[in-house]
C-alpha cells in the first residue's frame, strides 16, 4: 500500500463507497505486514515508498548479480517501480530473469522498470553538464528523475570556457523549477548558473579530469565553496542522488 | 525595482490604473540603472534581488569594518534588506553608523535589517541540530531564513547517540516543508532524518569536534556519503548557505 | 604446549596423577623449545597461542601461495588452529596441499581449520552490517570469531536510512555481550547502535561506497568521531581485527 | 530510576517485601517520565544511565560556561554522577555555582562529582602512556575510568625508544583486565603492548609531536594499522572515549 | 652593473664615445665582483638583476626585522630597487632605518623603494579579483608589478556569482597584454576570464573562504583543473609571484 | 571566419578591392552563424579560434571514439586545425574515418591535422624534461606547441641529480623566449632553470615516481613552492596546457 | 676513468712506473671526454661513478624496455656495474640482448651485472624486515647493497607483534655497522631497533597493508615521527634508496 | 657508567692497574643499578648513553617547565650532557634552577650543558640551509651536533634560485664527511647537493613557506622523492634528529 493507494482508499471512504470499518481493516492489514522483507543478506525496505514517495533503489556496486536480482524480484513483485544504478551488462542479464520488461540505459548504466502510479513533478528539471565526458553522470540523473515522474530538459556541454554556449540559453535555464548542474574538472559551472536563476541548484561533481582533479575532489570542493547562493552538493558522480533531491523539490 | 515592485507595476497596468507607456518608462529607467555600483574595492550587485529574490549578502570575513559599512550603506540606501554574516562586534559598530536600525544576533554572529517587502515562504523550515555546540551555525541558518521570509521550527540537541530524543518528534519533523540538519563530529543526523521524511534535507556540517574531525571534514564526508536519499550538502559551518537553499525551495 | 595443555598438566599435578618433577620436566622442555620457527622468509611465532590465546594468523596478501602454505604447514603440524585471511582461490589450492581438511569460505575470503581445544567465549557476539555490500567484511568477522570459539548472531542490512529495520531488533541487539558493527559509506550505524546498548561496540569501517567515500575514509572518520560512547574502531575492511578484539572481550 | 534502582526494586519483589502491583506502578511512573529534559539549547538524556550504565557526560568545548552549568545542574539534581571533559577553569567556576562539591582535575582538564551508586568494574584497567607529554590525555582517561567505578594502574613514560622500561613491567601489564595505551608521535606502543598480553588493548592516539605528526594523524594511522591483534582505536586525544570503552569491558 | 648599465656601455662603444679597451676593463671589474654578498645568515644575490631583470626580493616572513633591514641595506646601497613582501609594520620601522625613502603599502603588506632604471613593460597588466576579501593579494600583485615597470589596470570584485559585473568589462579585459586573476573560494574566475581573452592568464588562488576551502586549496585545485586554455597558476596568496611572472611576459 | 580571414577581409577594404558594404555583409553573416554547433552530446565552440587564436581542442578521455570522431569531423569540416590529446589507438582509428590525413603521435598520445593558416610564434620554446620517464608529457607539449605555430627546442633528461648535464646548456636555455620544464618525482628542475633565465618558465609536474610522489603531487607542490621567480604551474601531466600557455606568450 | 682507475694511475706516478707527463695526458683525455652521453631521450651521466662512487642506476618504471636496454648498453660498454631496479621480465629480456651476463633477481625485481672494481664497505649492513610481505623491498635493498660492495646480514619477519623474535637477536643487530629496517603497516620496527643500537638506522617504509595504510603512508609517518634517535627515512618501497644511503655510510 | 668509563676500566684491567675481581664488582654494581629512574610522570632512561652513545635528550614541547627541570636535574646529577630542544625562555629559567651552568641558544631554541667525556666525531659535518628563514632549524642541528662532539661547517642561504652561491662552494661541501641540508618551500637543495658529493646527505625539511607548502609537507615530499642518491630524510623542522643521525655516522 503506497501513498497513492492510501489516498484512493481514504477518498473512497469520504465518497461513501467504502465503509470505514472495511477501510480500517485494510489499513491495519497493511500495517501488520512487515515493513521490510528479510532475505538474510538484505532487508528490503518495503515501506520506503510510503515514507519517502519512491521505493527502495538498488545501488549496483558491491553486490553480486544474483543478490541484485533477488532484491529486484521482491520490489517488482510488489508492483513497485524498479531502479538499479551502476549496473553493468551482467547485472542486467540477471535482472531480466526476474523482470523481463526492465530496460537497460547504457549511457546512464541504469536499469529501470516503471510500475505503479508515480506522481508527476510540478515543473521542469533542467540538467546541465559542462562537457561530453560528464554524460554518464548526467544521464544517470536524467533516467532517475524521469522514472520519478519529472519532465527533463537536457543542456549538455556548456562549460565555462566558452560561456556564450550557456548564456545564449538563459531563458531556457530560467524557466526550470529545479536545476541540476553536472561538472568535473574545476566544477565552476554551478556557480555561474546559480548566479543566473532563482531556482535551487543541485550540483553534482564528477570524477572527470586527471592529475590534480583527484577523482572529482577538485570539482567537489569548487562546488562546496561556491560564491553563489542557492547551491547544494551531492557526492562525486552521484547523478542518482542529485536527481532524487531535485525530484523531491519538484514534487513540493 | 525588485520583483515585488515589478509585479505591482504590472498589476496596475492590468488594472488600468497605470498607462502602459508610463509603465514602460519606469521599467526602462530601472534597466538603464547600472546593475551594480562600483566602489573600487567592491561592485555591489544591485540587480541580485531581481535575479535571485534576495539582495546581495555581505560575508563579514576578510573585509574591514569600514568596507563592510560602505557596502551595507549602499544596500540599505536602496531600501533593500541587509544581512551581514560572520560579523564580530566591531563590524556591528561600524554598520550601526550607516544603519542605526540594524540588529546584532550574537549567537548567530549576524547583522540584519528587514526592509522592503520580502515574500513569505510557503511552509515551515525545520532546523535540527545534533548538539549544543552546533548552535552558532544553526542560529546563522535560522536568522537567515527568517529574514528571507520563512517560518522556522527549531529542534536542537537531537544527536543520534540518544535517538529517542529525535524519534519522539517525528510528527513535527514530518510536517516541515524543508528540513535543515546541522551536525558536527560524525555528521550522522541527516541520514537518520532523511530516512524519516519526504521533505528535502539540506545538510550543514559543522567544525564541532576535535582530533580526527579535521575541522568538520568528518561530518562533511559523512553527509556526502549518506546512504539515505534526498540529502544535499553545503560547506562546513555554512548555516547561511543552507538557509538560502532551503528558502529558495520553500518559496517554490 | 598451549594454555589448555598447561592447565591440564597442572590439574593432573593437583589431582596427584602426575608427579611435580615430571610436570616440571615437561614445562621446562616446552620452554626450551624455540618460541618461533625460522623459515628464512618468516619466523612463525609458535608461542603466540600461549601468550595471546590464539595461534598466529596468516594475512594472505603480499605473500606467495607457496610461502603461505609453508607457514600454514608449520601451524597445522603443531596441532594448532589455522586461519588465513584475504585468501584467493589459488592460495586455498596451495594450502590444501599441506592441510587437506581446511575449509574455504568464499564470501569471507578465508581459509580455516579448527584444531586443538579452543575455549568458548562467554556470550554472543552480534555482527550487524549496514548493507549487502558490506558482506565480505562482515563474514570475515563472523568466520574469525566462530573459529575463536564464539557464538555469532548475524544481523545484516540494517543501515540507518531505514532505521525501523534496526529498531525492531533492539532486544536481539541488547542480548549480545559484544557487538561488531560493519558499515561503509557514512559509517553512521555504530553511533546509533552504541546509543542503544551497554555492550562494547567494535566498529569496522568498510571501503563500500564511491566518490568522496575515499575507500572507506569517510566511514572510518565517522566512527572515530562518534558522538556515542563505548565505540572503538579498527582498520578499514578489517573484519578479522574486529572479530579478534571482540573475541578477546567475550573470553574475559 | 537507574539500573541499580531497578535491580533493587525487582529484588524486593522477589523477596516479597514489595507487592508486584506497587512495583509495577513505580516502573510505569518512571517510564512515563520524559526520557530527556528539554532546555531549548540542549536535550539532557536522562535515560542514558539506564540504557548505558553511566549518565550523559558533558563535552566542555563549543559550549558556554553558562550552558554547561545549566546542563550539569540537571544531572546533579537527579542525583547522577557528573563528568565534564575538556573543561577550562572558567567552566569550573560556573559549574561550582550549581555543584559546589565538584572537583577540578587540572592535568586531566576534567570536572567530576561522584554521586549515586556506581557499580565496580571487575579487574584493573592499566593505563600506559609513551611519554610525559601524553599526560593530559592519560589523566583524562584515568579520571574518567575511576569515576566509572574502575581500579586504575598508571604506567607512564614507557615509549618504545627505551623498551626495557616497558619490558621490566610485563607482570604488571599482564595482570590487567583491560589495557589503555596512550601515545603520540609514531604511536608504536600499543602494537608492542598488545603483543605481550591477552587483555584487549584500547589505543588512544595523541596530538603530541610536530611536523609530520599532523596533530596526531601519524599516531592514529599507526594504531589502525597495527600488526598486533586485539587492538581497537578511539579518536585522537580522546582519553575519555578510551576509558569509557575500557570501563564497559571491565564491567562485563 | 645591471642590464641597463651594460646596454649603455655597449652603446657608447658602438657610438665611439668609449674605447673598447676601457669598456672591457669596466666589464671585467664587474665580473670580478662577487656575484653575492655573504652576511653569514644570508647570501645576497647581487647578480640577480643581471640574470633575471630585477634584483633579489625579500620575503618578509621567517626573518627578524634586523635581518631584513641588513639585507635591504645591501640592496639599497647598490642602487637597486627594493621590494619586501609580507612585511608587518615593525619590519617597515627597521627598514626605514636603512632606507628612509622606502614606502609602506598597508593593503599590500609590502615595502618598496624604486631605484635605478627599470625597463617598462610593453602593454597593460590587468589585475582582476573575485571579491573584496581578495584585496590583500591583488594589491601585492599590483604593487609588485608597478615597481617592475608595468602599467596596471585594476578590476576588483567581479566574481562569477554576478557575472554581468565581469562581462560588461570585456573590452577592458581584452585590451590587456597579460591578465592576473586573483580569487579564493571556488576559484572559478580564471576559467571564465581565460575563455574571453587571447592574453595569457596567471591565476592566483587566495586563502579567502572557510570550511572546505582548506586555506585556499579549493581555489588552487579549481585553477589547476581549469577547462579553459591559457592559464597557469602560482602558489596560494602569492600575489608577488603572479606579478613577477606577468611582468616577465609583459617585458618580452 | 577566423582572425586571419578577418584581417584579410579588412585589408581588402583598406586596399579598395572590397567594398565596405560587401565586407559588412560578410562579417554580419559570420556573426549570424551560430558561435557553436550543437551535437546534443557536445556544443562545438566554433568561435574559439576567433576569440583565442586556436580552435577547440578535444580531450580524448571520458569520451567514446565515436563522439570524438563526430566532434573532429565538425572541426576538420570547417577547415580548422585538429588536435586530440590523450588519444589511444582506437580513437585514432575512428578519427581517421573522418580525417584521413590526420597523424598519430604515439609517444605524445596525440592526433594532429594542421589546417588553415596558423600564425608563427616569435621565438623558440625550449622544452626541458628531467628524465626519460617524463617523455610522454614532454612530447604532448612539443606536438601541441608545434601545431600552434611554434619552433621547439627539446632538452631531455637533464634532472638535477647530475646538474652538469643542465649547466652545460645554459646558452641554449637562455636563448629561448619561453621555457617549459617537465618533471616528476621532486619536481626541482623548474626552480634551477628559472634561476638561470629571464624567460618565463611554465612548469609541468608529471606523475612519474612512486610511493610518496602521490601521482605527481610531490612534483606539483615543489613547483608551486619554488623559491625562484618567474614560474607558473599547470596541472599534473598537462603537457598540452603548458604548451598552450607557452604558445600564447610566444605569440605576444 | 673511475675513482679506482684514478687512484691506480696516481699510485703508478708515486711509484715511478708512470711519468707525470704521461699521467697528465691520460687524465686530461678523460676530462675532455663528455661527462654524459646524449641519446636524445636520455643523457647518461658517465661521471657519476667518479663523483659519487657508483655509476648511474636505471629506474625501470616509466621507460620502455628498448630505452632501458639502450642506456644499459652504454653503461656496460664502459665497463661499469649495471643495476636496473623495478624491472619486469620483459625488461630483462631486452637487457640480456645487450648484456648477456646480467642476472635477474625475481624477488628483488632487479637486474645486476657486477663489473669493474667496486670498493668493499667496512662493516656489515643488517637488513631487518617486519614481515614476509616486505620481502620484495628488503631484497631490493639487499641486492643493491651487495652490488655496491657490502656484506649483508638478513633478519626477516621480526615485527613488533612478537617482539621476542627480535630481542633474541640483539647481539647480531648490535654487531652491524649500519642497519636498514624495512616495514609496512604501522612501521614501528625502526623505532624499536634504533632504541637497541648505536648504528645509524635507515628506515624504509613499504606499501604493505590495506585500508588506512594508504599505500605506505602510515608506515612512512610512523618512521618520520619516531621517538627514537638515529633514524632517517627514504621513500615508500625504496629499498634501493635505503641501500645506497647505507652503502655510502658503510664506505666511510 | 658510560661507554667511556667502561673503556677506561677495561684498559686498567689490561694494564694491570686494576684487579679483574674489582673490575667485575664495579661492572656488576652498575648493572644492578636500575636502567631508568621513575619520576612517576617520566622514566628517565639512564642507560641510553651506554646503549646509544649519548644520554636521553628532552623534547621541550608538551611538558611543563617544572617537569623538564626535574628530568634535567636527574641527567645533570649523573654527570651526563644535557640537551633540551624546543625550549622557550621560561623553560630555561626553570632549568637554570637545577643546572646553573646551562646555556640557552636563542636562535636554536635549545639549552645545553656539556658534561662528561664526549667522543669526537671523525670528520666535519657541513650544515647547509636554503634560506635565512631556515636558521632556527639549522642552528638546532648545529648546536646538537656540536654538543655530540662534532666539528661543524655552516653554509647558509644557498638555495637553488641562485645556484652559483652553492656551486662556488663545491670544494668545501666535498670535504665534509656528512652533510645536513635544511630547506623549506620546495625542498630542492638536498637533491642538488647530493648530486655533487659522495658523503651521505641528511635532509631536513622545514615548515618555512606558506600556502601550498602545507607547513613543510611540500619540502618533505620533495626530499623523499629526490632523484639523487644518498639522501635520507627526517621529520619537518627536526634539526635535532638530523644532527643525531649525522653524528652517529660521523662517529663510525
Number of strands of chain A: 11
Structural class of chain A: alpha/beta
Give, in spatial order, the strands making up the sheet with the most strands of chain A: 8-7-9-10-11
Largest interface pair: A-E, 33 and 33 residues
Average of per-residue pLDDT values of chain A? 91
**Helicity level of chain A, as a percent range?**
40-55%
Structural Rg of chain A: 20 Å
Compressed to H and E, one letter per element, the order of chain A equals HHEEHEHEHEEEHEHHEHEHEH
| Share of β-strand residues of chain A | 15-25%
Terminal Cα separation of chain A, in Å?
21 Å
What oligomeric state do the depicted chains represent?
homooctamer
Low-confidence stretches of chain A: none
Enumerate how many helices of chain A there are, as a single number: 11
Largest pleated sheet of chain A: 5 strands, parallel
* Broad shape of chain A: globular
Descriptive report:
The structure is a homooctamer. Chain A is about 40% helix and about 20% strand. Chain A is of the alpha/beta class and about 250 residues long. Chain A has a five-stranded parallel beta sheet. A four-stranded mixed beta sheet of chain A has the order 3-4-6-5, with helices on both faces. In chain A, strand 1 and strand 2 form a beta hairpin. The longest helix of chain A has 13 residues, at about 5-15. Chain A starts with a helix and ends with a helix. At the A-E interface, helix 9 and helix 10 of A face helix 9 and helix 10 of E.
Amino acid at each position: 500500500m503506497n501513498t497513492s493507494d492510501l489516498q484512493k482508499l481514504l477518498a473512497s471512504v469520504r465518497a461513501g463507497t467504502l465503509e470505514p470499518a472495511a477501510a480500517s481493516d485494510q489499513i491495519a492489514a497493511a500495517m501488520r505486514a512487515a515493513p521490510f522483507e528479510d532475505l538474510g543478506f538484505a532487508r528490503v525496505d518495503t515501506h520506503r515508498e510510503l515514507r519517502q514517495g519512491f521505493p527502495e533503489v538498488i545501488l549496483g556496486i558491491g553486490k553480486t548479480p544474483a543478490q541484485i536480482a533477488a532484491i529486484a524480484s521482491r520490489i517488482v513483485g510488489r508492483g513497485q517501480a524498479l531502479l538499479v544504478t551502476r549496473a553493468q551488462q551482467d547485472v542486467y542479464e540477471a535482472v531480466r530473469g526476474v523482470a523481463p520488461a526492465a530496460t537497460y540505459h547504457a549511457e546512464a548504466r541504469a536499469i529501470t522498470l516503471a510500475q505503479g502510479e508515480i506522481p508527476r513533478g510540478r515543473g521542469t528539471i533542467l540538467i546541465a553538464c559542462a562537457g561530453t565526458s560528464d554524460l554518464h553522470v548526467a544521464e544517470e540523473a536524467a533516467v532517475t528523475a524521469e522514472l520519478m515522474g519529472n519532465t527533463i530538459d537536457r543542456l549538455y556541454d556548456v562549460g565555462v570556457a566558452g560561456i556564450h554556449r550557456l548564456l545564449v540559453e538563459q531563458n531556457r535555464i530560467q524557466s526550470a523549477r529545479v536545476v541540476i548542474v553536472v561538472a568535473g574538472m574545476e566544477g565552476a559551472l554551478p556557480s555561474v548558473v546559480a548566479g543566473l536563476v532563482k531556482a535551487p541548484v543541485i550540483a553534482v561533481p564528477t570524477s572527470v579530469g586527471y592529475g590534480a582533479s583527484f577523482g572529482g575532489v577538485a570539482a567537489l570542493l569548487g562546488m562546496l565553496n561556491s560564491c553563489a547562493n542557492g547551491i547544494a552538493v551531492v557526492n562525486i558522480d552521484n547523478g542518482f542522488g542529485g536527481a532524487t533531491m531535485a525530484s523531491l523539490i519538484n514534487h513540493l
